[in-house]
Design a protein that fits this description.
CATH topology: Rossmann fold
Pfam families: Abhydrolase_3
Number of domains: 1
Strand content: 5-15%
Number of helices: 11
Protein name: Alpha/beta hydrolase fold-3 domain-containing protein
Largest sheet: 10 strands, mixed
CATH superfamily: Alpha/Beta hydrolase fold, catalytic domain
Helix content: 25-40%
Keywords: Hydrolase
Order of helices and strands: HHHEEEEHEHEHEHEHEHEEHEEHE
GO molecular function: hydrolase activity
Family: Belongs to the 'GDXG' lipolytic enzyme family.
């Protein structure tokens, strides 16, 4: 008979070889499985047409509780933060944004103890501050913070580095607002950069630009990232290995924009794909200019998992970064907070972490964030354990792909073979029966305008 210690240790180990070759994963609920199937199918059906993809999100707005206050503002672009490749004319105009407040405030010019600058995801070409309100209002609630969500310019109309400039302009608006706006002025240590997916990568890129090019501007106090997109070259094993579980498609084939020289909307040419401000995986640690304290969350069944692990453990091994891997979770699993307790837990942990770091700054203490990797299980109580060598997960994934003949080139420096030929994510009818209960839960997640009653 195995001891409880053995059982606990084995429960925390990520056994990638024993995972099923197709979804669902053992800890998924019926509703979660169906929701992922619908999401994957929708993305697959529209990935080859930018126009159709935008039709799904351009007018979409996630409902929020009535007590949430949304205040629309316009942020002037700054011409004194121009990443290489930009001209002053590219920094004209203003950025649409909104304040998201959970706690009552006196007025829109009131300063708070802490503020979150939020950069939404959407592969750089879709979504907006409106589509991500289900995440942003909860973060404002759990972190007891004002949250500023911005609509940076989207690709392919605005390619790198234009969106990066918008994020930098929003940050400077917080720490150095133009006098005519009457906006509150924040100290850098009060500000946390946040973002999901492409927005997480963009928020991180802004921090890296400030580190390397903006010494006249102070760094933000902290960063909190959800499944940040760190490698547009798709060089890590999980991009292929976790394809059967994640909902992310391999990319777009829209012939109007995509061709052999350009594989992503965000870049004008593939030569930019490994630029450190496009793919932060290729950035390097600088002991003389450290990153601010950082927390990153990702699913251990998502396609971006290995690039995130590699960034934290191999590229920035001495930086103050806490990485959290969530059992059987997919890309930006926090968006399912209305369905899954582990998704809501992730957002709560973000809020608690931000509160802890900013509170230390308020007491004029340097926050202590230990560099570590944690794994959080998707079961009752959501137990947490330290992962001693997370890079072993990446190496094991590589060996699995090599054994399956799904790895091309050199065994160490090759790449996963793309999975475009695989069948799309489907729902196993033997596991999930479409019934009224599931339909009702899916209706609650439907993207719609207006607001809903808070519980």
């Amino acid at each position: 008979m195995r001891s409880s210690t053995q059982i606990d240790r084995e429960a925390f180990e990520l056994d990638q070889r024993s995972r099923p070759l197709r979804s669902p994963l053992p800890t998924w609920s019926r509703t979660f499985t169906m929701t992922l199937g619908v999401l994957r199918g929708t993305l697959e059906a529209n990935k080859n047409s930018l126009r159709r993809a935008r039709l799904l999100t351009d007018k979409a707005a996630t409902p929020v509780p009535l007590r949430v206050k949304l205040s629309k503002i316009y942020i002037p672009r700054r011409k004194d933060v121009l990443p290489e490749g930009m001209a002053e004319k590219d920094a004209e105009g203003a950025i649409k944004a909104e304040w998201v407040d959970w706690e009552p405030i006196k007025n829109d010019k009131s300063a708070a103890d802490r503020v979150i600058l939020y950069v939404h995801g959407g592969a750089y070409f879709i979504c907006s501050r409106k589509t991500h309100r289900g995440i942003t209002y909860r973060l404002a609630k759990y972190a007891k913070a004002r949250l500023l969500a911005i609509d940076y310019r989207l690709a392919p109309e605005a390619t790198f580095p234009v969106p990066l400039s918008d994020v930098l302009s929003a940050y400077l608006f917080l720490i150095d607002p133009p006098p005519h706006t009457g906006a509150p002025k924040y100290r850098p240590e009060q500000i946390t950069f946040m973002g999901d997916s492409a927005g997480g990568g963009l928020a991180l890129s802004a921090i890296l630009w400030l580190r390397d090019n903006g010494r006249q501007f102070p760094m933000p106090g902290a960063a909190a990232l959800m499944s940040p997109w760190m490698d547009l070259t798709h060089s890590m094993p999980s991009w292929r290995l976790n394809n059967p579980y994640d909902y992310l498609p391999d990319g777009s084939n829209d012939p109007k924009y995509i061709n052999p020289e350009r594989s992503h909307y965000y870049v004008s040419h593939n030569s930019f794909l490994d630029h450190p401000l496009v793919s932060p995986l290729y950035a390097k640690e600088n002991p003389n200019r450290p990153l601010p304290p950082m927390i990153i969350q990702c699913g251990d069944a998502e396609k971006l998992r290995d690039e995130i692990i590699t960034f934290v453990e191999e590229k920035f091994p001495t930086s103050a970064i806490q990485l959290e891997l969530y059992e059987d979770q997919v890309h930006v699993f926090q968006m399912f907070a209305s369905l899954e307790s582990i998704s809501k837990l992730g957002l709560r942990r973000f809020g608690e972490w931000i509160l802890g770091v900013t509170s230390q700054y308020a007491k004029e203490r340097a926050p202590r964030v230990e560099h570590n990797v944690l794994r959080i299980l998707n079961r009752k109580g959501h137990p947490v354990s330290v992962v001693k060598n997370a890079l072993d997960i990446v190496e094991e994934a590589r060996r699995i792909l090599i054994g399956r003949g799904q790895w091309s080139g050199d065994k160490k420096f090759g790449k996963p073979k793309l999975s475009r030929g695989e069948s799309a994510f489907v729902v196993n009818p033997e596991y999930v029966q479409y019934d009224e209960e599931v339909a009702e839960e899916l209706d609650k997640l439907a993207i719609a305008g207006g607001q809903v009653q808070s519980k």
